[in-house]
């Protein structure tokens, strides 16, 4: 099934492994099995090396000041976090064996070429590469679906990115709202932007969420997100560059359960009673005799009343029967019917 068909069928949930393997291939395999058990539809990794991301330089331009990775050097951070390319075909094969889709983020042409060689079926582009138009065009030229995060992106930057992709003839695009902070804070999510992106660009939208908890994801689903992405680990005690803002299996499982519950609650456009409501129609209001009425007696608001349940005439008939004579004796508690009225 194609990606766009999958996300039309149900909200598509991506578990982002990123650097949570902490340098262990066995842990990478453990993560994808835990993701499957926690309800993920897809496991995502990242395809880069320190040298495809930056240069091994320690001057002030390459040292991080503030935030989760305060004091880190970019090159050495990527050394800690990257997923060795020699693992990736095996991770893909194991994911597919257990029924998980496999996805990776490409960061340069060499990573795209590598991912093509192992048969990647669709691509993720990170927020930080939103403005790398040559990369976007190269990925789009592979004619495979693209999930593009838009963190930090201005409207003009997102316009340029979408135009670059569509100019290649590739229209299989999903845009994700993202707050590129680690961890992100709820007040910076601005989920209404996600909804607006769907209207502006005419593509499915979703949320790449770096905040703690699942409030943002559940809210996004209620607002129309078709794809959600969360960082996933087996335990935050396994320290690595991504662990502090990643979900553990029990948290991720609860998030997926909440997503599926919200989907059920959203349902479809449907007027009228549900099957479960049909039995309760009898508790609507109708007109009942509220005081014994003799034959020939005038029907007034003193002897009939609109009450529950609904076995009598509909409330709208009240004006039609008031002032009329009763054809027969009518006992207190009897539902009113037309044959009782002259």
Describe what you observe in this structure.
The radius of gyration is 30 Å and the shape is elongated. Helix content is about 35%, strand content about 15%. Helix 7 (about 135-140) packs parallel to helix 8 and helix 10 (about 215-220) packs parallel to helix 11 (about 250-265). With about 350 residues, the chain is of the alpha/beta class. The protein has helices at about 5-10, 25-35, 50-55, 75-80, 85-95, 110-115, 135-140, 155-165, 190-200, 215-220, 250-265, 320; strands at about 10-15, 40-45, 100-105, 125, 145-150, 175-180, 205-210, 225-230, 285-290, 305. It folds into 2 domains: about 5-265, TIM Barrel; about 280-340, Antifreeze-like/N-acetylneuraminic acid synthase C-terminal domain (Type Iii Antifreeze Protein Isoform Hplc 12). The strands form 2 sheets. Strands 1-2-3-4-5-6-7-8 form an 8-stranded parallel barrel, surrounded by 7 helices. Strand 1, helix 2 (about 25-35) and strand 2 form a beta-alpha-beta unit. The termini are far apart.
